[in-house]
C-alpha cells in the first residue's frame, strides 16, 4: 500500500443519507469543519429512495394546524407498541429532539415539511394513538436548485414514477384518478406533464422532486449552503483507533488511501447491511427469496468497523428489518426491476394475496404483510385480481388504467387466465382452494366485513384502500374475467439491527461506556422501534432526529462529553 496522505477535520460523516446529511448540517451550521464521505457515486442513500415522510409527535406544524398531541401519550403509545425491550432513554431523547429537529431544519436550512393529513398511526388499539398530525412530508423541490449536484443525487425508484419517469406525490394521486372527470385535475396533470417534457430537453430526468428525493435534495442543498465538504466515491476502509478512542478514518479516494484525522469525532451513517448477502442470511428469514430495495453500498461497513473497535449490537429486535412486499421483473439484458407493493394495489378493493395452498394468509391492507408471509411460510405468494381491478388500479408494474399490461404479460411478470382454476394452475396453487377463497372473499366484500383478517377495520388500513369505495374502502369483489396474478416476495427498505448507542448518539462499548470520538446514526444505530414501527415515516424520523442529536453533541462537546 502506498504511503497515506493525511488531512484534518473537526468531524467526518460516513454516508450521505438523511441521517448523515442532517448530522453534517447541524455540526457545520454551528461552526465546525465537516467532511462527508459517500461510498458510491451518488448522494442520498436509502432516504432518496423512500417515501420521505417523518413521524414526529408534538410537532409545531400539526399544532399550528389545530391538531393536538401530548408527549406523555406519545411515550405511552410507543412504549406499548414496542414492548419491554424498548430503550426508554432513547425514546425520551427522541420525543424531546424530534420536534426541535423539525423546527431547526425549517428555520436554518432549505428543508421544508408539511403535515400529511389523513395518515393515522399504525396501531389504533394502543393508548396514545393519533389518527392525524404525526406524519410530515417534505415539500416538493426544484432539482435545478442543486446546480451541478442535481445529477449526483440518487434518483428515486423508477417504479414509483409515472410512465416515462415523471415523479409524482401522494397529493397528485387524487388528480390522476379524476383527470378524465375534473377539468381542475386535468389541468394539474397537464402542467406536470408539460414541465416534465420541458425538463427532459435539458436534464436526464424531471426536476420536480417529491417524496424522499425532495427530502434528500433539500438536505443536500442545505449541506452545501452551510459549507459541508462532500466527497463521493470515497469508501471508508477502517477507523483510526488510538488509546481506546476513534481519531478518524482511512478512506480510499482516486484509488489511493487517505487518512482523515478528526478533532471532534466520526459519525457512522453507512446505511446498515441490506446489501450484505452474508448478513442477510444471518438475520433475515427466507433469505434465499429476499429482495432488498436499498442502495448497493449498504453492506454493513460502519457496523463491522465499529464492532472491531469494541462496539456491539443492542440485543434482540422484534424484527430485523423494515419489511416490504416486492415483485421482480427480469428484463432482457439483465436489468432487474423491483416493485415495492406499498399503497397502489394490494390494499385496494378487489385484490387478495394467495399462498401455494390457494388460501389467503393475512390482511393485505396492513403495512406489514411480510410478517404474515414469514409467519405462515407463504413465500413466495401471489397477488390476485380481476380485469376490472387491473384496469382501474393497476397491479405492480402495471399502472392504473392498465398501462403496460400487454407487455408485462408477454414478459411473464403478470400471469393471466380466463378462469380462477386456470390461474391457479399457472401460479402453482391449489385450484379448489383458490376458487373457495375468492368466493368467501367476495361474500365478505359485499358485507364490508373481513371475518378472517379484519381488513379495512383499523384506520391504519384506510389509506391503502379507495375512499370512494363502499362499504369498506379495502374490500371489493373479484368477479370479472380474465384474472391476473403477480408473484410477490419478502423484501426490505431498511435494516433495524445496529449498534448500541446512548442518548447523544455515542457508540457504546461492551461495558456501556461511550467509545470516545464515535457516533452512529440512521441504520447504523439499532432501531429505537426494534422492528415494530409506530407509523408511516418512523424510520426516516429516527435518521433525521438522531443525526440532529449527533450534530448537536459534536458541536457542544463540553456538554456531551464527546471529546
Automatic annotation (TrEMBL):
Domain FAD-dependent oxidoreductase 2 FAD-binding: 10-538
InterPro entries: FAD-dep_OxRdtase_2_FAD-bd, FAD-oxidoreductase_2, FAD/NAD-bd_sf, Succ_DH/fumarate_Rdtase_cat_sf
Key word Flavoprotein present: yes
Xref: SUPFAM superfamilies: FAD/NAD(P)-binding domain, Succinate dehydrogenase/fumarate reductase flavoprotein, catalytic domain
Requisite cofactors: FAD
Taxonomic superkingdom: Bacteria
Any one GO BP annotation for this protein: steroid metabolic process
Keyword annotations from UniProtKB, A to Z: FAD, Flavoprotein, Oxidoreductase
GO molecular function, one term: oxidoreductase activity
Protein name, entry field: FAD-dependent oxidoreductase
Amino acid at each position: 500500500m502506498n504511503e497515506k496522505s493525511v488531512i484534518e477535520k473537526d468531524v467526518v460523516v460516513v454516508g450521505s443519507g438523511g441521517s448523515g446529511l442532517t448530522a453534517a448540517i447541524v455540526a457545520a451550521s454551528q461552526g465546525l469543519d465537516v467532511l462527508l464521505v459517500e461510498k458510491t457515486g451518488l448522494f442520498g442513500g436509502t432516504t432518496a429512495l423512500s417515501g420521505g415522510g417523518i413521524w414526529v409527535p408534538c410537532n409545531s406544524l400539526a399544532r399550528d394546524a389545530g391538531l393536538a398531541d401530548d408527549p406523555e401519550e406519545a411515550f405511552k403509545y410507543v412504549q406499548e407498541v414496542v414492548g419491554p425491550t424498548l430503550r426508554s432513554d432513547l425514546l425520551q431523547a427522541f420525543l424531546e429532539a424530534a420536534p426541535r429537529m423539525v423546527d431547526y431544519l425549517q428555520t436554518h436550512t432549505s428543508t421544508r415539511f408539511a403535515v400529511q393529513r389523513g395518515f393515522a398511526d399504525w396501531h389504533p388499539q394502543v393508548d396514545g394513538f393519533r389518527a392525524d398530525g404525526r406524519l410530515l412530508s417534505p415539500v416538493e423541490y426544484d432539482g435545478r436548485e442543486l446546480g451541478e449536484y442535481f445529477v449526483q443525487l440518487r434518483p428515486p425508484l423508477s417504479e414509483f414514477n409515472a410512465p416515462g419517469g415523471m415523479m409524482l406525490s401522494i397529493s397528485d394521486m387524487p388528480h390522476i384518478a379524476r383527470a378524465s372527470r375534473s377539468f381542475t385535475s386535468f389541468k394539474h396533470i397537464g402542467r406536470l406533464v408539460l414541465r416534465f417534457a420541458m425538463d427532459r430537453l435539458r436534464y436526464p430526468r424531471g426536476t420536480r422532486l417529491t417524496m424522499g428525493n425532495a427530502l434528500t435534495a433539500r438536505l443536500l442543498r442545505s449541506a452545501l449552503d452551510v459549507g459541508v465538504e462532500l466527497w463521493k466515491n470515497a469508501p471508508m476502509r477502517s477507523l483510526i483507533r488510538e488509546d481506546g478512542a476513534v481519531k478518524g478514518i482511512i478512506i480510499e479516494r482516486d484509488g489511493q488511501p487517505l487518512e482523515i484525522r478528526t478533532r471532534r469525532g466520526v459519525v457512522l451513517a453507512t446505511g446498515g447491511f441490506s446489501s450484505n448477502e452474508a448478513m442477510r442470511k444471518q438475520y433475515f428469514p427466507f433469505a434465499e427469496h429476499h429482495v432488498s430495495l436499498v442502495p448497493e453500498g449498504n453492506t454493513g461497513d460502519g457496523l463491522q468497523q465499529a464492532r472491531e473497535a469494541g462496539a456491539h449490537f443492542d440485543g434482540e429486535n422484534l424484527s430485523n428489518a423494515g419489511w416490504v412486499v416486492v415483485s421482480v421483473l427480469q428484463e432482457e439484458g439483465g436489468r432487474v426491476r423491483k416493485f415495492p407493493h406499498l399503497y397502489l394495489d394490494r390494499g385496494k378493493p378487489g385484490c387478495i394475496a394467495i399462498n401455494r395452498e390457494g388460501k389467503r394468509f393475512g390482511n393485505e391492507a396492513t403495512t406489514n404483510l411480510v410478517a404474515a408471509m414469514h409467519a405462515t411460510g407463504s413465500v413466495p405468494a401471489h397477488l390476485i385480481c380481476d380485469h376490472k381491478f387491473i384496469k382501474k388500479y393497476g397491479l405492480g408494474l402495471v399502472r392504473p388504467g392498465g398501462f403496460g399490461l400487454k407487455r408485462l404479460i408477454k414478459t411473464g411478470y403478470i400471469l393471466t387466465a380466463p378462469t380462477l382454476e386456470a390461474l391457479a394452475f399457472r401460479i402453482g396453487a391449489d385450484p379448489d382452494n383458490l376458487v373457495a377463497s375468492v368466493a368467501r372473499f367476495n361474500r365478505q366484500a359485499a358485507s364490508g366485513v373481513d371475518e378472517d383478517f379484519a381488513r379495512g377495520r383499523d384506520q391504519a388500513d384506510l389509506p391503502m384502500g379507495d375512499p370512494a369505495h363502499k362499504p369498506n374502502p379495502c374490500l371489493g369483489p373479484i368477479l370479472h374475467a380474465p384474472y391476473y396474478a403477480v408473484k410477490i416476495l419478502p423484501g426490505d427498505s431498511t435494516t433495524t439491527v445496529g449498534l448500541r448507542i446512548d442518548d447523544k448518539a455515542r457508540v457504546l462499548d461492551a461495558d456501556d461506556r461511550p467509545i470516545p470520538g464515535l457516533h452512529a446514526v440512521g441504520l447504523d444505530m439499532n432501531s429505537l422501534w426494534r422492528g415494530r414501527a409506530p407509523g408511516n415515516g418512523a424510520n426516516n424520523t429516527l435518521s433525521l432526529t438522531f443525526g440532529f442529536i449527533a450534530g448537536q453533541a459534536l458541536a457542544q462537546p463540553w456538554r456531551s462529553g464527546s471529546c
